[in-house]
């Protein structure tokens, strides 16, 4: 046994004993909050809005530091969280259905079991929009147009294999009509193409449409109940279409988080969510909130994975 | 709405908010002047810190950085032939020859005055014409944007340099680099070799720094002893106020380049480098002595620098009104707005007029401040850099470049990639392959491809869609004009020469 291996062994023993000590009174040091997107995006803003509340409710004067690891539509960040040490000092943002869809369409270095699910805080339902000038302003007219000439209805969306794409697959199933996908890079260019009348319809999220109500027709919202952000938009269920879908954003930690650390974190997320100031900050940044804590989040993730698998098997998106 | 504009003025003029703009401009000039650091990066670094700031302080700094960096990029472009930012590539065409002729100081003065004028024009357009111009943006769907990209590519002809074949190879290399990453239409991975880091494509800064900054920096290292630093170090500057009257003859270029810059700015996705290339090209075509261009024509510097600053505030028009950023910097700035709960869209102007209009004023002030801070202070102090021994200068640039490229995404992968491009750039330089077509190919190749394919999807695979809208027809006409005009003028000249001979 050379000096090197002794050193490594010592380091391992030291670090493991240190982490055991840390578990006793979590949190004792800085917590890194990994965001898989660049600073300033929707997920980043959610993380930065949440961080100070976590600091408050975790106590111990802990600091929660946002660390941006952009790339591969969030996959680099999620992978880093999955591979981090499960000690509660690395947590990260998590986007559905994207995070699970990537385990199907790419060689991802993680799967659904790689995480401890903490809290999903944002649920941003899909909406169908058409240009203001368009005469397709109800679901019935839309379905009629799509059935009359298969593929003639062009659908603007932000990307492939995301919540909007999944929604379109469901729409195709439910209406039995054919649509042509036009994937832009991001929802803002898709929305502008709609406002300019370059495409027939678009699938975006409610948070992206509220500021543009005067420029677009909104045909329906894919949630169980009407949204508090725009309660005049009827749900698809009300209109007889069984369509519930949306973009989910939340927080995860690596799998096998010690139970006491998990409890502390879940407690902090619950308190954060209940804080009126947090709700106000999220509303201001246009994030529709809906909490799924711990095991509920895990179930939610499993549902999303199941859906993604079903779609991938019947109609792979790439 | 113009009432709101006046109402927003007092808060902008408060000490803290003005100071923010000054700090931003100075920081922007420095960031722009350092190869490898860009405005996009500076603003993304700033954003987390703005979380707790007053919105106008944060936005003022961003406006300052954006304007400052667009000028700052020209300093190393002129003095060392290393563009500090992608948008300064066209500035180096004539700026560097001027510096070699001992007119570097004048080149920088032309650059700073042109930058300021472009920035002022852009800010005024943002203040007065944002809503109507946003409607223009909506006319540009994928089809129309495709033609804009083709129009930009037609400029490649003028950038090929002496050897057309080598120029085309360079351009093809640029287009090839644009192919790397996930295909945005089908999701298929192209040339990523399983690397997640390559899925989003190759960042323009990585390519630019590798090709443009490393080879000249290595060149500096190769000059073991340089006794000539005294000569190049002297920029022969007179006071900027004395130099301005002599520049007034560039007014046509200023006006034309401002219009081009604003136009490119309001188009989603194009950005400052395309504005600079296009306006350099147009200015050269309008010039009486196009053959002097590339050999130290101050008007070339004026054209490029006016339009890359004219692009700044204009890029915010679609960003603020529609949420689509005209440039990468505007995209980061949108994030800065979002952090303060300011969501882009028509409601923004209704709900937060004091901040939106205040932000517009800050753009105007930042542009005006450029003349004072850039002209009087920065230009002279950066010129001193040239007095450093060449190998030291080369070493400093190389270390800055490493830091800059690493900090884009915080990973070594990009640094290795940059070194690879550096190797390619070094050999291209030695073998006399022109570099500008590579940059143009990368920027416009991907842009043209994605929009062409979106357009064809919308048209159900029918190519007729490409000429279906009036906007598209106008663009096609303009492209034909650009391509055919040299042919016609050559024919005319040949006929004239024939007649003279007879």
Task: Describe this structure as you would to a colleague.
The complex is a heterodimer of chains A (318) and B (502). Chain A is α/β, with parallel strands linked by helices. Chain A has two domains: 31-123 and 246-314, D-Maltodextrin-Binding Protein, domain 2, CATH 3.40.190.150; 125-239, Periplasmic binding protein-like II (D-Maltodextrin-Binding Protein, domain 2), CATH 3.40.190. Chain A has ten helices and ten strands. The longest helix of chain A is centred in the first third of the chain and has 22 residues, at 3-24. The radius of gyration of chain A is 22 Å and the shape is globular. The model of chain A is unreliable at 14-23 (pLDDT under 50). By secondary structure, chain B is mainly alpha-helical. In chain B, 76% of the residues lie in helices and 1% in strands. Chain B contains 23 helices and two strands. In chain B, helix 5 (74-80) packs across helix 6 (89-100), helix 5 packs across helix 7 and helix 7 (104-139) runs antiparallel to helix 19 (353-384). The longest helix of chain B has 36 residues, at 104-139. The chains are: A alpha/beta (318), B mainly alpha (502). The interface between A and B is large, with 55 and 50 residues. Chain B: Residues 18-440 form the DUF112 domain. Chain B: InterPro entries: DUF112_TM. Chain B: Residues 287-306 are annotated as: Disordered.
SSE blueprint and pairings:
The complex is a heterodimer of chains A (318) and B (502).
Chain A: H1 3-24, E1 31-35, H2 42-58, E2 64-68, H3 75-82, E3 90-96, H4 98-105, E4 115-131, H5 139-148, E5 154-157, H6 163-175, E6 180-183, H7 187-195, E7 201-205, E8 216-221, E9 246-254, H8 259-274, H9 276-284, E10 289-293, H10 295-314
Parallel strand pairs in A: 1-2, 1-3, 5-6, 5-7
Antiparallel strand pairs in A: 3-9, 4-7, 4-8, 4-9, 4-10
Chain B: H1 2-12, H2 15-33, H3 39-50, H4 55-72, H5 74-80, H6 89-100, H7 104-139, H8 142-154, H9 156-159, H10 164-179, E1 181-182, E2 189-190, H11 204-222, H12 229-233, H13 240-247, H14 251-266, H15 272-286, H16 298-322, H17 328-339, H18 346-351, H19 353-384, H20 390-409, H21 412-430, H22 436-458, H23 470-501
Antiparallel strand pairs in B: 1-2
Helix pairs in contact in B: 1-19, 2-4, 2-19, 3-4, 3-17, 4-16, 4-17, 4-19, 5-6, 5-7, 6-7, 6-16, 7-13, 7-14, 7-16, 7-19, 8-22, 8-23, 10-22, 11-20, 11-21, 14-15, 14-16, 15-16, 20-21
